[in-house]
Amino acid sequence: MTKGGDIFDQLNARSREVFRRVVEGYLESGEPVGSRSLTRTLSEKVSAATVRNVMQDLEYLGLLDSPHISAGRVPTQMGLRMFVDGLLEVRDLDLSDREKLDATLASNTEDVGGLLDRVGSALSGMTQGASLVLTPKHEAPIKHIEFVSLGHDRALVVLVFADGHVENRLFAPPPGQTPSSMREAANFLNALIEGKTLSELRTVIAAEISKRRQEIDSLAQALVESGLAVWDDDANQPERLIVRGRANLLASDGQAEELDRIRSLFDDLERKRDIAEFLELTESGEGVRIFIGSENKLFSLSGSSLVVSPYMNADRKIIGAVGVIGPTRLNYGRIVPIVDYTAQLVGKLISDRS
After folding, report:
1. In the chain, where does the domain assigned CATH 3.30.390.10 lie?
2. How far is 100 from 130, CA to CA, in rounded Å?
3. What distance, in Å, lies between the first and last C-alpha atoms of the chain?
4. Rounded to an integer, what is the distance from CA 8 to the centroid of its chain?
5. Which residue from 330, 320, 347, 353 is spatially nearest to 90, judged by alpha carbons?
6. Which of 153, 132, 134 is nearest to 324 (CA)?
7. Tell me, which fold does domain 142-232 have in CATH?
8. For the domain 95-136+239-353, what is the CATH code?
9. Given the DSSP bridges, would you call strands 64-65 and 166-171 parallel, antiparallel or unpaired?
């Protein structure tokens, strides 16, 4: 089939207006739009029969669909994509929406995780959809590593980051550890860590242990490897995905089949280990992106739409994303500026705290 953009170029002014009115009517009401109601809103005075003929042509082109015989028309996924790309009018962010978002991020008393949790709740409340916020993993350079014995079968690995952030994790050390082997393991790591992030350190450590196997005691080596394994175990889920507003979608008046698809979407999100895939949706460029239905495999089964934007740190590196999920008849014109402004605010917040 011809791509939507090529089809759009082939439409005359009347067909474009009919198509736009059908999509806008559907997005507003969620109901099929009929020819009689369209004749009252078109700029050109034409008969209902003429409008029906135009709608049939648009249906033949794959832009509209008729859910029931003798019913009005609704846009197809390709039609929605063509509308979003060529006809969507994104308005400026409403002052009231801006004030709500500013107020959400006004407090500096909470940690970043707590503030992002509030962002998710604010987004779902404002859009009446479900919000997704992917929090950044901690990628500051490491300043110091320490091993602390808590017993013969328990130890603590302490990471101090250059920005003052501290993380502690319990792990099972190798049998027979001694105070000297723990000091040797910590000294070995601290000699290598300067200026390196945790992900960079893993690669360096593996190479150094292989190269200097004779120089490091086997017990200290085992301690290094088991201590780092604690962090490696979490490598598949380095970020946290905050989902808010599930009830907004499940409480809708949709059919049971639609609600089952929405439930499957949330079940998939909650089970998903590699949530970094969500961030990859945004990596083709800055700004807001819109995914409709099966355009994104994560949401294809639910037939939902996703409006998502990355946020960046002070170095202009993408470190997370914010988005809104809803039915395909989202109010895109209002939600796009909300998501865009939220991403900018979150990026500034992260940069200011770095």
Report:
1. 142-232
2. 17
3. 49
4. 30
5. 330
6. 132
7. Enolase-like; domain 1 (3.30.390)
8. 3.30.450.40
9. unpaired
Q: Is 9 helix (H, G, I), strand (E, B) or coil?
A: helix
Report angle CA 209, 213, 214 to the nearest 5 degrees.
Answer: 150
The beta strands (E) that lie in the chain are given as: 64-65, 74-75, 130-134, 142-151, 154-161, 166-171, 241-244, 289-292, 305-312, 318-326
Q: What is the pLDDT of residues 284-335, one digit of tens each?
A: 566 888 888 777 666 655 567 889 898 888 878 777 888 888 888 888 999 9
Q: Which two tokens stand for residue 242?
A: 């905050």
C-alpha of 281 from chain center: 7
Pair 141, 159: CB distance under 8 Å: no
In single-letter form, the type of residue at position 198 comes to: L
What amino acid is encoded at 107 in this protein?
S
Q: CA–CA separation, 205 vs 142, rounded Å?
A: 13
Number of other CB atoms surrounding residue 241 within 10 Å: 19
List the structure tokens of 247.
């009830």
80: enclosing H helix or E strand: helix 77-86
Distance CA 181, CA 203 (A): 22
Q: Which of the two residues, 296 and 85, has the higher pLDDT score?
A: 85
Q: 345 and 312 in contact (C-beta within 8 Å)?
A: no
* C-alpha to C-alpha distances, 208 to 71, 223, 225, nearest whole angstrom: 70, 15, 12
What backbone phi and psi angles, to 5 degrees, belong to 30? 80, 5
Instruction: Kindly indicate the confidence band of residue 96, based on its pLDDT and cuts at 50, 70 and 90.
Output: very high
- Identify the sign of the CA torsion 66, 67, 72, 77: negative
**CATH number, domain 4-86:** 1.10.10.10
Task: Output phi, psi for 142, to 5 deg.
Answer: -90, 140
Place of tokens 């994509």: 81
